[in-house]
Design brief:
Strand content: over 45%
Distance between the termini: 35 Å
Helix content: under 10%
Order of helices and strands: HEEEEEEEEEEE
Largest sheet: 5 strands, antiparallel
Strand order of the largest sheet: 4-3-2-1-11
Structural class: mainly beta
Length: about 210
């Protein structure tokens, strides 16, 4: 009986993820998608896509040692001793001496240099349309929350679950298979400055 259950499980896994694959553009290294397809409880085919690309801000701090010249002013006052004997006048007048010298003092400055070279990934899960095999939906990204301790979920019946990621919508996407194999992808976003959005991707090569 256990063997039968194992065989059924393996058959379901093979059929559910038969079109799983990693696709990329050979003219643009370091970027691609991982696609999972499977049947949901209603019998419809759903597709999960992970897009990994670059564009996250990465900053480096540089320490620069230098020497600056500063002026140091020293003030000294010479006070005559009191006279206890006639004519009760001091033998000299108080003298104030002011001297300014220039000294070389070592110092450090901190400069920050930022680029968009950080790696990041996006994820979306939606049904596969029967008309053309495309999947259309919302693409998401996430960032950690108090990792590794995370935060307790506020959802009902999830009091013992830690939420480690803050999920954010980044835009709408369409993922469409091509006749030659692979996928075309488009992400529509309000953020016009992000290089990952509002452009056409062509992931025609499959990693084998």
């Amino acid at each position: 009986m256990k063997l039968l259950l194992l065989v059924c499980t393996l058959l379901f896994a093979c059929s559910a993820y038969a079109q799983t694959g990693i696709f990329y553009d050979h003219t643009y290294r370091g970027e691609g998608i991982t696609v999972f397809e499977g049947k949901d409880l209603s019998g419809d085919t759903s597709r999960t896509v992970y897009l990994y690309t670059y564009g996250a801000e990465v900053c480096e701090t540089f320490i620069q040692n230098s020497v600056v010249e500063v002026e140091v002013t020293a003030t000294a006052t010479a006070v005559c001793p009191n006279s206890f004997f006639p004519p009760f006048n001091p033998l000299c007048d108080p003298v104030v001496v002011i001297e300014t010298v220039t000294e070389a003092v070592p110092t450090q400055s901190f400069d920050e240099f930022c680029t968009l070279n950080g790696q990041r990934w996006f994820v979306g899960t939606d049904k596969v349309l029967k008309e053309d095999g495309a999947s259309i939906g919302t693409l998401y990204t996430a960032k950690g929350i108090d990792f590794p301790k995370c935060m307790l979920s506020e959802e009902p019946f999830e009091e013992d679950i830690n939420i480690c990621g803050d999920v954010t919508e980044v835009g709408d996407y369409i993922l469409r298979p091509t006749k030659e194999g692979g996928y075309e992808m488009w992400i529509q976003s309000e953020d016009k400055s992000d290089p990952a959005f509002n452009q056409r991707y062509n992931f025609a090569d499959q990693l084998r």
